[in-house]
Amino acid sequence: MQGEACMRCSGGQTCAVGLCLGGNPHANPGSEGGGHGNGGALATSALWWREGEFVLQRYLPQPQQQTSFHFHAPVVLWEASPNGKRWAAGLATSATHYEVWHAEGDKTRLLHTGSGVLQKLAFAENSQGLAFLVASGPTQGPLQGQLWVSLHAKESPRKLSVEACGMVDSSFHVVDFAFSPDSARLAVRAFVNEGERRAGIWLVTTAEPGTCIAVVYPGEAMEPTPGWGALGPLQWGDNRTLYFRAHLTYDYPLQLYAFRLEGNSGSGLRNPLLSTSTHSLLSFALSPSMPLVALLQENAAFSLLPLGLPLRPSLVTGCETSTLAAAGSMHFSPKNDWLLLVGEARLQLVHLGHRACHPGEVPAALEAVWSPDGNFLATLSRREEADGNATWYIFLHPNNGHTLLQPTLISMGFQHLHQLRWTSF
């Protein structure tokens, strides 16, 4: 087409824009012997995305089926539970009001409504707990955030109270949160107004919302400027270890910290520095099953650090980290064979066995997510057309552990596509 060769398409597929569209995405000629496990690998997975402002799409590869869910107001946030049986969507009914809708199977209901702006929404790993963060709007300093928590599918959300932590709820402003892997705890990052602004992380139980089990890094007096103190993202290494970035003082660089919960209580940390190699840290990502963390620093140095002794970082070669420094993310494959780098519409892959980047095999991507088994990578791309419109594409890339095979196009259109999500079910 227009001088470009088409991909080799399977039966029932058609060639569009040089790629295979429709049909069975599993039938990739020349890829069956690659060991990526097509036989049933996607039978328990679903790919979701938001199309435009008012529609969620669900794509089931086996059997191939696409379902649309329509809403009466723009969807600003949405998430699906890990088991794929539930999902929740946050709507902006106005500039100052929101709704949170919950669905299980074919049943959809209004879960919560209120005033404010939705900032984050997340399910617990047990697929039962659900929490969402609401900000009242910009103020002097960080947004005034409140956290709402629901522990079960039929339970109405309750606003998190931290009075048991010795805090006044009205002065406690949540800016981030994360469920532990066993869903028994919530890590809550917040600012506290007490004459001078303080930043810290509070660990609370989910069985008894508001019950403090540890306060991490709470006592250091921070500068009034927002951003000093404990910073995101919050990432659990296991059910008792939490990782985050933090400043010690105004002129101290951002570094990577870890908090280990001992017993049923803990104390604030003062010097939990992992390694001097984590100075001036822009972002980090934890491997889901290996003691390994990926580090990106302000000087664009990218390295892998084993979470053990001795702490010796391993530099990764061939990566264009400058595209990550401005706005990027890092994602380990569930199979622990790749680390995915997404930054400024450019996607790169780091093979963990070779410690080297593999650019060029994947089209420029706005978003990219691994399937739960790591056998497939879904990417979202956009191409500007001559008429000024943009065409959005979603590709499915089989992963055989050594390379990503030829992708299959599963969706294309002129509407905005956002927020790719994989689930199991």
Poorly predicted regions: 21-42, 138-142, 218-227, 267-273
Number of helices: 2
Distance between the termini: 39 Å
Derived from helix and strand composition plus strand pairing, the structural class reads: mainly beta
Strand content: over 45%
Provide mean pLDDT, rounded.
75
Shape: globular
Residues in helices, as a percent range: under 10%
Query: Main sheet?
Result: 4 strands, antiparallel
Essential attributes:
425 residues; mainly beta; 4-stranded antiparallel sheet; 2 helices; 33 strands
Question: How would you describe this structure to a colleague?
Answer:
By secondary structure, the chain is mostly beta strands. Helix content is 2%, strand content 48%. The strands form nine sheets. Strands 5-4-3-33 form a four-stranded antiparallel beta sheet, with no helix packed on it. A hairpin with a 5-residue loop joins strand 29 and strand 30. The longest helix is centred in the C-terminal third of the chain and has 5 residues, at 322-326.
